[in-house]
Amino acid sequence: MNDSDHIHPDISDYGLISDMHSCALISTEGSIDWCCFPRFDSGSVFGRLLDLDKGGYFKIAPRTPHTVSRRYLPGTNVLETTFETESGTATLTDFMTIHHHGTPDQPREVGDDHEVMRILECKHGSVDFLMECFPRFEYGTIVPHAHLDTQNTAFAHGGANAVSLYCSSPLTKKDDGFLAEGTLTAGQRMYAVITYESRFSHEVEAMDDSVVEEKLLEAVRYWEEWTATCTYDGLYPEAVHRSALVLKALTYAPSGGIVAAPTTSLPETIGGSRNWDYRFTWIRDASYAIYGLFILGYTAEAKAFREWLEWSTVGRARDLQIMYGLGGERRLTEIEIPQLTGYRESKPVRVGNGAYSQFQLDVYGELMDSAYLYRKYVGDLDEEYWEYLLRVVRFVLGHWREPDEGVWEARTERQHYVFSKAWCWVALDRAIKIVEEQGLPGDVALWRSVSTEIRDEILEKGFDKERGVFVQAYGSKVLDAANLVLPLIGFIEADDPRMLETIRATERELTSDQGFVYRYRGFDDGLAGDEGTFNICTFWLCDNLIMLGELDKAEALFLKLLGHANDLGLMSEELDAATGKMLGNFPQAFSHLAIINTAVQLKRGKDGKLGR
Q: Greatest CA separation found in the chain?
């Protein structure tokens, strides 16, 4: 494999396909540059996204110059890329086969095989094509032993990993990978399938073109039927429906957990070192996810995520983590892979996330908020889970005065962050509401007394009286966009003079020329380098403007931000303020959850029915 002349495409260049175990990112040039088997957090099989020479890729494209357009088949996560050449037009259809996990009343069935299926069809004229498949296991650190079985089947294995390849055109072997080439005329198709072999054996299942066609119909039918259950009928339905499909694609079906993003180490600034692994599930996403899924009508997904949440977090309240593995794993040890150059020379490449061991008080409030929303929208909490939640409340009562690392996972000394304290208030507020609404046992008088104490302390110590704004932490002068959440969680009204000035100061001091929001400025978070504007923070600003009744202003900012999604409607974590290009891991679940939430809030604002 020699692709040294290639340059990394923009992050926005990629489309996503998924089987809800893992996924693949596919460029406009028909190249799978990121794919991990058998789970989102497994080692990559194709990882050119993080190293052009070592990472491996699987590309199907015309050999001659061409233009590209692409789309998802309506209501699906099946990706269609159309190549226009001088001699003809061809369409590449990419999808992953669907695993059937049963229903909530029946055991899930989890298949062993994970497959990416690709169909190149000539629509008119003729098209010369080239297929290149170079698997490289464990983030490109293992070059496999590759060999041909027949002219249409091949096998590559290394370490504990193996993949088989089927191609309807004759295969040749080159540089421990495989090539196929040919010419298609109108109506002709070329099929290629890569299958992850989960057992250490050389057994390639029979594959033929009719199987691929059947699997395509099955995948399209699955996604269309899932989309059809969406009950959303509000504003910007295309963006909302695509966001829902992204969230479903980022769901690890065997457990119900939602991965924050399917990638690792896409940088927060090009060439920088703020490169993190997001292939885990954050408790912080919980209340957003349960609320967002429910209001779209996806009750089963909301239940599954809540089940993941209960399974992963139950135990001693003091052991609650900010994030977990997709199956509930607790140890997410962070390591660096020095052999890889990183996306556009952004080093280091990291696997695992050391922030899992941080102490962040907000997660206790987010857990209680998710339980409250579940009870409100889905159904009552059972007594056993309530016993655990009572332990969470007791932990908050005993520890809310302590400093923590904060929502942005700073790698400096702990502080008394306003955001963290406010979520402690949420924990008690939601516990009180659950007791009052469901009649469960609890010391409401004590909780109300402590929640008042927390609120009074935030208003006293977390508020800069000279500037008239909420600050990042007690004694700090730093403005933090995280405080835009305060009205959204019911801590304070958006039009309260203290919050109103905080919103205005955020607009003046924490926004780019386009009006997009940075997390903070002038704060030493223990990390080198700069970062882009954070999409979730800009959506929070939109939500605040909606609550202020500034609907036109909120909608204009919302649409401007949506304009920075890619041609497929996918969004990353951040944007480069100078260029508007995507930064950070992609696509980002939190960004898409926020699209749903802000669209709903905008409609409710216009209808005069604000609130969660």
A: 78
For position 522, what pLDDT does the model report?
Answer: 86
Q: Calculate the alpha carbon distances from 390 to 12, 313, 394, 433 in Å.
A: 44, 13, 6, 13
The total of other beta-carbon atoms located within 10 Å of residue 199's CB is: 9
Please check whether residues 187 and 291 belong to one and the same domain: no
Is the pTM value of this prediction over 0.85? yes
Are 233 and 184 in the same domain?
no
Nearest to 540 by CA among 521, 561, 525: 561
Nearest to 356 by CA among 409, 311, 420, 400: 409
Tokens 């003091």 belong to residue: 318
- DSSP-H helix ranges across 439-494: 444-461, 485-488
Helix, strand, coil distribution of the chain in percent, nearest 5: 35, 20, 45
Bridge partners, 173 (sequence order): 178
> Within 13 A of 532's CA, how many CA atoms are on the CB side?
28
Residues in the chain: 612
Same-domain status, 96 and 184: yes
**Residue keyed to tokens 């990291």:** 350
Any domain includes 219: no
The CATH number given to whatever domain includes residue 168 is: 2.70.98.40
How far apart are alpha carbons 513 and 539 in whole angstroms? 16
Report CA torsion sign: 96, 258, 314, 443. negative
A 10 A CB-CB count for 353 gives 22
Residues (pLDDT < 70) of the chain are 1-5, 100-112, 198-206, 612
